[in-house]
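ok so for the tutorial part 2 we go from a plain amino acid sequence to predicted structure tokens. step 1 is just haveing the sequence, like this:
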Amino acid sequence: MDVKIDDSWKKELENEFKKPYFAELAKFVREQYLSKKIYPPPRQVFSAFEWCTFDNVEVVILGQDPYHGPGQANGLCFSVGENVPIPPSLQNIYKEIESDLGKKLPASGNLERWAKQGVLLLNATLTVEARKPGSHQNKGWEEFTDSVIKLLSDKKENLVFLLWGAYAQKKGAIIDESKHYVLKAAHPSPFSVYRGFFGCKHFSKTNAFLRSVGKKEIDW
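step 2 — the prediction. this is what the tokens look like for a chain of 220 residues:
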């Protein structure tokens, strides 16, 4: 099937799109969009790959599900569209950046500015039914995003992976830590942020590592 995704990713993932599970996933997702309210909008399902091409990936942040409220999900994990109230987890991410780097809290929760610098903001599941978190889990998305992580781990070197929370850390177990810099902390949600996310300094550590391997820092 023809998947609307950036050409650099299409080339790398060509074989994945031909697998039977992906055909089943595509059929499921298509039927869901026709019969229910699904987020993000269809054109933004693969936004993480559009804003951050395969060649440009320097940092990977793993999320779980898209936001399931109206107007929130825009295809980038933890990110929301312009003029959308900033969700609690992203507020906590911004607070850690302020504490870590001394940067003022942004007014916008749109993280496209990170993605354009090489931050792949990847959810494990790329679609969700409105008001039903986890509703599109175990339909094939996890297999697809596992293949993306393995592809990056195998084909690239000196990437930074930020794994926040048990779910992301389990999903990131396939990363080759001898080739990449993997940082782990608690999830930034209000339920766990004080268990090790605040004070993790992942943003300064990421930039220090990028500098050490001759790469450009991320302007968080």
